[in-house]
């Protein structure tokens, strides 16, 4: 491992403003009495890319890190010619997290979930004895599995068995990565239940999702990459959302950049996109309140089955919580868009034609939203627009062959916790 002085930061309860020490893996304010995200407050208030550190850790000053890991890559931002011209935008910048060496993008797991994996795992102390537990339906699982394998960090990844096709790898994974699947017919929430039951044992530690400042500030590097290239805070930001964590993260880094003062004082409009008919965030936003729209588990599962961008089907996004997506969109005067499956397909093909590489369906959903925003006059020809192209290049990354990681265990989420714990314990 490389020598690295941990990043200096404190945590702030967004609802109350109370600032406190991170005594290790804190996901909320122990003294907070209403639901709120906590946010990292970095000692270095100036945006200071670190040219002495490799890959993603270029942005280590604004990630809550104890250590840095091997083989990371940063998102890549460039001025779009093809898509920009097609949409009539003079200042469209694409921030791509995926695989396309010709534009300098080298994230082999092909999505911005790699940024969160390197940040979350870097937040864990080397002395940490507990085993990390992550639940995922796709790209997050692939990113954490690869990064843990490369850096020999033990992890249990809980997935629905039906998402197994997302667990492709170009190299054999290290045995420290264990995959536990909820059987055929189960969804992401069943995988979450498995992980929650496992974490009832003190040997395991839950990653924490959007509540983990490291996850958000890893994803927030997409904006840092954009601002380093553009030289200023964009006017508008487009991202496809399931939880909205990446969009919250971008807004938080926007606030830090305003405080820095050298990159402008504007809040970029946070424009988010969902794939119809799964429209939970869209419906909640259009209803105009902090309250999340109603959705039964059956509706959620059904709509998730229909959409192409499966990763955008989170049923419990951090929407209304203080410091969450509603706040990010309201504060920045953003908006939400719905993109049909047909439009997602269209933009996968058009983007390949205009930019020269393939996007994942989720990222193509954001392109569909950008096109709609141009049509509706919500962004202008001269506006500086950042498109967060959150994943792609998988055709190229997989072209030299790949294999699937089989689950180490298939366990019903209905099993009692002690049985799940005993079976997973036996894997290590
Ligand atoms: C490629 C891709 N884009 C977008 C998203 C949505 O991310 P967020 O968690 O910010 O909603 C995901 C989530 O898994 C994803 O994999």
Give a quick precis of the structure:
The protein is α/β, with parallel strands linked by helices and 428 residues long. The chain has helices spanning 82-87, 113-123, 139-151, 188-198, 213-219, 221-230, 245-260, 280-286, 297-306, 325-331, 341-355, 361-375, 394-397, 417-425, and strands at 9-13, 19-20, 38-42, 76-79, 91-96, 99-100, 105-106, 131-135, 155-160, 168-169, 177-182, 204-206, 236-240, 269-275, 335-339, 384-389, 403-404, 409-410. A six-stranded mixed β-sheet has the order 4-5-16-13-14-15, with helices on both faces.
How many beta-strand runs?
A: 18
Distinct bound molecules: pyridoxal-5'-phosphate
Please bin the fraction of helical residues: 25-40%
At CATH's second level, what is the architecture of the domain at 76-110 and 215-397? Answer: 3-Layer(aba) Sandwich
How would you write the strand order of the largest sheet?
4-5-16-13-14-15
Distance between the termini: 23 Å
Multimerization state: single chain
Query: Which secondary-structure class do the elements indicate?
Result: alpha/beta
- Say what the CATH topology of the domain at 76-110 and 215-397 is: Rossmann fold
